[in-house]
Every structure is written in C-alpha cells, then in structure tokens.
Amino acid sequence: MVSLHVAGGIYEYLHPWRLHGHLAETHELEAMADEWSVAPRDVFPGYIDTADFADLAHASGVDYDILWLNLMIRHHDGALQLANDALQSPTSSRVSEMAEATLLTQSREVSLMRRLHGLLCRTPPRSKSCND
Description:
CATH architecture: Up-down Bundle
Low-confidence stretches: 1-7
Number of helices: 5
Strand content: under 5%
Helix content: 55-70%
Number of strands: 0
Number of domains: 1
Structural class: mainly alpha
Shape: elongated
CATH superfamily: Ferritin, core subunit, four-helix bundle
CATH class: Mainly Alpha
Radius of gyration: 16 Å
Mean pLDDT: 77
C-alpha cells in the first residue's frame, strides 16, 4: 500500500482522477445553466467557495489530504443531490443521461473518498480536520 502520510501524499494517489472528464462536463453544464437561466453556482449544494480554497491553500500534509477529502465529499454529495433532483423531473434525455452517469461515477468516488478519509483519520498522525 502506498503511504498517504507524506506531505500531501494523497495528491499522488488521486492525481490520475484530476481531470477525468470533469472539464468537458463542467463546460457543458455551464452552457446548460446559461441557456436555462439556472441560479448562480454558489447556491448549489456542495459548492466550494473561496474561503474553502484559502483553507486548503494554507494546509499541508495529512491536514491538506483530510481537508481536500472533506471538500470533495461535500462537493460530490451535492452533485448526487442535483442528479437525483434532475431524475425526479427530467427536462431532456441528455439531462437524464448526465444525471444517471453522475450517480454512477460520483457515488463510487464518494465511497472511495470516505474509505480514504477513514483510513487517514485512523492512522497517526491524526489530522485536526478529522471529524469525530
């Protein structure tokens, strides 16, 4: 097993996920939001604001890893909520397809991130960002 307790060690483990389809998906979603006059993104569940990014920028090592996981889990949980909402009242087949794909991929990612979070929080040195 790769040691995750290196300064920001989770970065190397998760680096292959970095842009796994998210950029194209983001551009497509932003275009749809503009087209449909959707509310600004800061009202969406799971939104990561500049204060969160500032906290992340000041963290290091396992504290960075745990904070990053906390933010990403929250962000992905928000996407899952939006996907479930979209399936309750779909506006197009493309929206339904994206919602189903989001539920499949992001629920797997959340599961993995929760396991990594648990592993990091059980292994010394324990981060102050671990939730008891």
